[in-house]
Amino acid sequence: MRTGYSGYLFNVTLFIMLCWIISCSGRRDAEAGKPGTDEKTMGSLPVPVLMKMATPSENSTYRLGEEINVKLVPEDRSKSFDSIKVFFDGKEAAVIKGEPWECTVDPARNMMTGRRSVKAVAYSRDLTQSVTRFVTVLSDAAPAKYGYRVVRTYPHDSQAFTQGLFYDNGVLYEGTGQESGSSLREVELETGKVIRLLNLDPALFGEGITMVGDRIYQVTWTNKVGFIYSKSDFRLLNRIFYQTEGWGLTTINGQVVMSDGSNILHFHEPEMFNLVSRLEVYDNEKKVDQLNELEYINGEIWANIWMTDLIARIDPKTGKVNSYVNLSGLFPEEERRKTNADVLNGIAWDKEGKRIFVTGKRWPRLYEITVTE
């Protein structure tokens, strides 16, 4: 009796499940054929394509201030749309309400270099569709190329793996790198003597430094943690955290600007170190990456380009490279090999004295230079 009853229940359950499947299938078919219903309600079924973006094409290039023509082509004439909104770099640039489905992005909107999005959103009675293209905006001018003249040389600790450098009130401040060798230093310019020294935890690789008010900021390479110190006594005030690698630092209008070895500069507010904005750096041909130590000089960001003897001078409003300063021969390669010195790195600006100082990793000298044509 127990076996027979169980079999009966199984057959009844199977019959109910079959009826439910047939019923559901029938309802889906019936509703799919109702007038006014289209694929957008079908979940996994494809959405009809209302339009395609004819221009700009994906990864096309433009110059700063250049017009960007947007042309949209209806894909299915049986499914018309009422209007199209066009967005450039996330901001509404135009509304098109009839044919031809074309517009021009105002050149005044195209004033920052980098990879930018062009998005169009088409609206119809019962469907909305968007399409996005990405374009690259290059500088509108070839960067000038400058040389240098040495004004004076100063002693520098040849064991200092220089990562960050700035000058304030007659004193150099230096951040050094390497595991078990990272530090923050106060240095006497004339003699190279280390007046004050704070060693970092041996597990940390120190990177760039900068000053905001009476506080010194220092970041680390891959640990994604940095430190805020009192300038007067190097006392630790706080820790800061970020999502990228930390390379160089400088300060612009109270914001801390950080490089991460790419072509992107990150602008942080100084209290919580929250990211405020990003700047993508390009010249007239390409993105300019490997940006390392930073210094803000007379309205420009000066950046060492890692593994080269070049300094890029960057417009902080647009991201374009205004010029390159070539420091080849300042500390020749053959001398570097003899002394185990590494690459050029370290820029400091004496705002009052209008002096520029540069050095490198484990260089025995620090140089005061002036830029030449």
Your description of this structure?
The chain has 373 residues and is mostly beta strands. It has 2 domains: 51-138, Sandwich (Immunoglobulin-like); 144-372, Methylamine Dehydrogenase, Chain H (7 Propeller), CATH 2.130.10.10. It has helices spanning 2-32, 333-339; strands at 51-55, 61-63, 68-74, 83-88, 91-96, 102-105, 114-123, 128-138, 144-155, 162-168, 171-176, 183-188, 194-199, 206-212, 215-220, 225-230, 236-241, 249-252, 255-259, 264-268, 275-280, 291-297, 300-305, 310-314, 321-326, 344-350, 355-360, 365-372. The strands form 6 sheets. Strands 22-23-24-25-9-28-27-26 form an 8-stranded mixed sheet, with no helix packed on it. The protein has a 5-stranded mixed sheet with strand order 2-8-7-4-5, with no helix packed on it. A 4-stranded antiparallel sheet has the order 10-11-12-13, with no helix packed on it. A hairpin with a 4-residue loop joins strand 19 (255-259) and strand 20. It is elongated and about 80 Å long.
Beta content: over 45%
Low-confidence parts:
1-43
Shape descriptor: elongated
Overall pLDDT confidence? 88
Question: Which descriptors apply to this entry?
Answer:
Methylamine Dehydrogenase, Chain H; mainly beta; Immunoglobulin-like; disordered N terminus; 2 helices; 2 domains; 373 residues
What is the secondary structure topology, with strand pairs?
Blueprint: H1 2-32, E1 51-55, E2 61-63, E3 68-74, E4 83-88, E5 91-96, E6 102-105, E7 114-123, E8 128-138, E9 144-155, E10 162-168, E11 171-176, E12 183-188, E13 194-199, E14 206-212, E15 215-220, E16 225-230, E17 236-241, E18 249-252, E19 255-259, E20 264-268, E21 275-280, E22 291-297, E23 300-305, E24 310-314, E25 321-326, H2 333-339, E26 344-350, E27 355-360, E28 365-372
Parallel strand pairs: 2-8, 9-25
Antiparallel strand pairs: 1-3, 3-6, 4-5, 4-7, 7-8, 9-28, 10-11, 11-12, 12-13, 14-15, 15-16, 16-17, 18-19, 19-20, 20-21, 22-23, 23-24, 24-25, 26-27, 27-28
